[in-house]
Specification:
The complex is a heterodimer of chains A (294) and B (701). With 294 residues, chain A is α/β, with parallel strands linked by helices. In chain A, 41% of the residues lie in helices and 23% in strands. Chain A folds into two domains: 242 residues, Rossmann fold (3-Layer(aba) Sandwich); 36 residues, no CATH class. Chain A is built from ten helices and ten strands. In chain A, the strands form three sheets. Chain A has a six-stranded mixed sheet, sandwiched between helices. A two-stranded antiparallel sheet of chain A has the order 1-2. A two-stranded antiparallel sheet of chain A has the order 8-9. In chain A, a hairpin with a 6-residue loop joins strand 8 and strand 9. In chain A, helix 4 packs antiparallel against helix 5. Chain A starts with 5 loop residues before the first helix and ends with a helix. By secondary structure, chain B is α+β, with helices and mostly antiparallel strands. Chain B has five domains: 90 residues, no CATH class; 184 residues, von Willebrand factor, type A domain (Rossmann fold); 96 residues, Immunoglobulin-like; 224 residues, Class I glutamine amidotransferase (GATase) domain (Rossmann fold, 3-Layer(aba) Sandwich), CATH 3.40.50; 68 residues, Immunoglobulin-like (Sandwich). In chain B, 25% of the residues lie in helices and 29% in strands. Chain B has 15 helices and 37 strands. In chain B, strands 20-19-21-22-28-27-26-24 form an eight-stranded mixed sheet. Chain B has a five-stranded mixed sheet with strand order 29-36-35-31-32, with no helix packed on it. Chain B has a four-stranded parallel sheet with strand order 7-4-8-11, sandwiched between helices. In chain B, strand 14 and strand 15 form a beta hairpin. In chain B, helix 7 crosses helix 13. The longest helix of chain B is centred in the first third of the chain and has 37 residues. Chain B is elongated and about 135 Å long. In chain B, 41% of the residues are buried. About 2% of the residues of chain B have low confidence. Classes of the chains: A alpha/beta (294), B alpha+beta (701). At the A-B interface, strand 8, strand 9 and helix 9 of A face strand 2 and helix 2 of B. Strand 8 of chain A pairs parallel with strand 2 of chain B.
Amino acid sequence: MELLNAQTLARLAGVKLRARAVVEGVLSGLHKSPHQGQSVEFAEHKEYAPGDELRHLDWKAFGKFDKYYVKRFEHETNLRGILVVDGSASMAYGSGPMNKLQVATTLAGALGYLLVRQQDAAGLAVVAGDAVADVPARAAAGHLSTLLDALDRVEARGTTDLFSAADRLAEKVQRRSLIAVFSDLFDDRQDALKRLLQLRARKNDVAIFHVLDPAELSFPFDDPTLFLSMEDERRIEVNPREIKQSYLEEMGQFLASVRAACAEADVDYELVRTDESLDAVLLRFLARREEKRR
Amino acid sequence: MTFLHPLMLWGTAAALIPLLVHLFDRRRPRPHPFAAISFVLRSQKRTASRLKLRRLILYILRTMILLAVPIALARPVLASEAGAARAAHGPAATAIVFDTSLSMRFKDGSTSLFERGREEARDALKDLLPEEPATVLLCGARAEPPPSPIFDRGRLRTMIDEAKPGYQGADVSRCLELAARALEESPIPGKRLVVVSDMTASAFRLDAPPPQVKGPTGELVRPEVVLRDAADGRKVLPNRAVVDLRIEPAQQSGPRAFQITATVRNFSPEPANDVEVALKVDGRVVAKGFLQLAADGTGQKALTYRFEQGGTAFGEVVLQADGLEEDDRRPFVVSVPRELRALVINGEPSSVRYRDEAFFVSAALDAPGSPVQQTVRDVEAGFREKLEDYEVVLLLNAPAPSAEDAKRLTEFVQKGGGLLVSMGDRVDPDAYNKALGDLLPRPLRLVKTSASREEAEGEGKAARLLEIQQDHPVLAPFTGRAREGLMSARFYKYMLLEVDAPRQGKELSQVLATYEDGAPAIAIARRGKGRVLLFTSTVDRDWSDFAIRTSFLPLLQRFLSYLTGGLEEREELRALVGESITLRPADDRRPVAVRAPSGAEVELRKNDDGSLTAGPLQEPGMHLAMDDKGQPIPQLSFAAQLDPTESNLARIDPDVLSSHFGEETVRATARAGERPPVPVWTWLFVLAVAAFFFEGVLLRK
């Protein structure tokens, strides 16, 4: 399989094309829903063992074989996926061909594409400041276009306020939804991530796509630089060589703390570098979920 | 401080460059919108104080580099203030008194005080103004008046270069007096004495007046005195020394065993623990011990060694080395008794042992540690023995020998044998005089009875010894209680002797001890190469109770040692460095040279009485007397010792010295004021390179 690199992807205009390109690169791995839906299809019998639900006992089989069997079903899904894209001003940063927002929207579009293609419902929530712009979740095939158009229109602005966004999502999102968050998680509020992860406690399936630029990870600056904040008026003049070691330590601690928090909350975490192949990111994500489901 | 190239100092302005760069380098940093600015801010906050310090250090290092290089190029020198002062006083005729005493051999680290003193003397010479004449006096034990002050610096420098430290003390006060006389010969009014010394107290006589010099008009003036301390102001020069050795036979440890007792002195205000004392024989350590020495204290260590063979042996006691190694060893020469074969001719044998004439003699000669191997025979069998097989013959209360036996005995003695004759009832004076008249120290006369044992008060009337020649080697050890043991012996009968008349070809006899009536008790004489000792009483209890006295055993052994020539060989052969020693060679082997430890020959002079005087001895250690064939003569070899007083390196207080010479005349007691110009630029370059290196290290971090 040939993966799309960031340069190639950047040449494609608009989220639609990019998302499609990404999806085409992904194996058509259809996921199995962990949830039981409305239309069920009998799959097999299994001999009863203590702990099995009594309501699934097949009394007819008991009549025939004088043994307890439990019916097992395979369900087609009706999964609801909410794609949460961080649209704060910091997402506009990019040292490569694509900035973080472009990567986030492309990934969200690709994931939405996959969901709709499987007749799952996909919705969108764009977080910019404390505002959450919604595209309600639907499974109709024509909904994909609405979704991708909405992603195409996202602009980076305002500050990152994941805390408030998490509160609003909690109110709106029904239970047992897949909530995929695409953000750099640069929120100065200490408990913002915690709040976001609490969505998992409400029995939602939460996945974090932590989108970071390589320059943010490696701090490759040499000359004295005046760093300007992208979300407020903060600025600082430093000699990057003098603080590089300390910066890398801070960043390392930040990444480690996010990973640890996600692991603790049983949330899928995916670090996405803006210079890496996005279909590989999606494949990695899907493979991990498949493994987890088993 | 002065500068050889002062114009280069303008370069120090470059030291302002880092400051100017800091103040005016306002390059606009590139603005860069950055999403992770919170991390940048936190990092900056975390490292701010460290970065500030680092920048400060970098600033200092760069300034140092830019300062050090131009200053170094300006070639700064630390000029001597003393030199400036000297120029202000005008030129002076100078005498450099260089202490070459033993104490200057003290090593402080790897350099001796003497070498430091040599450097000081050279510096003193170098510091002289061109118009100042100078002279050099090497101040040793025998300091000679120095030559008149001259301008030939090369000659003076050679004198200093060729100077060697001595092994004796020096009288610096006397040397200063000699130097002051030499300065009087210079017409220059200014006079200066430069003292290069370790300033040990023993070198100065503070009771002597300070040196004065006659000026051009005859008036006495005090010369300027410059003190150059070779010990560099050290308060103490700690030293330990072997100050004495006592060597005694240790008969309890067997024949040829000696106990060597070393007295060690600690010349230091600090105690010394576990000081190693080693006994070396023929260059090999044979015994070792440790001493605890109190501060300024003395300790003794006795080491015992049994020599492997008789004869003259050489050894030394060596201390654990300290600053002055020369006094950490003390050599010695010891005469180890040879195995003696003695023929005891028993004139009155008896089956009752204590009545046997030879009973007490045999017991004495068999005592532990005795080197004597005796053969006891009666008269008849005794004279049948081959006398050549023995070194000494003891004739104990024996009848006079036949003419033939007397002839054999005489030949035996003439060839170097020893003969001891003791009296008794069987001795007939006339027959003895006839047979052995030429051999005996003196002819026998008659037996005198001083008291009878049977008498009630016989014991009180019995004769005792009155006078003994304690300066003779045979009786030298009998002092104190040993002497009492000898003097308390009672003699009931003894043989009177005829007066010793000089006769052709015969040496006069010597009386070593007399009875209360003046009659000889012990008489000795040399006959040919041999010796004869006559004891005028009995060696058993017939005529005296001497045989049961404590002094009997050691005296008999001394008799035999004397008779075989083993006694007087070493007694007087002890010498101090700086002194001379008299050697009394045997006729058959005369020394033609005496060789010092360094190989140098010691001056040897013949005396009227046939003896030789060697010396004055210049160095400590073993001196070998050499015969005309170039072979050493062990009997005449000797060890020269250092004067223990020279081992005391206590230093004189500089203030005391200053007040002695007159504080207004003493110029520089500290080295710092007298240092020659010190080149500083090398260190400045080193500093710049070091600063450059550390700047690089900081920048890499």
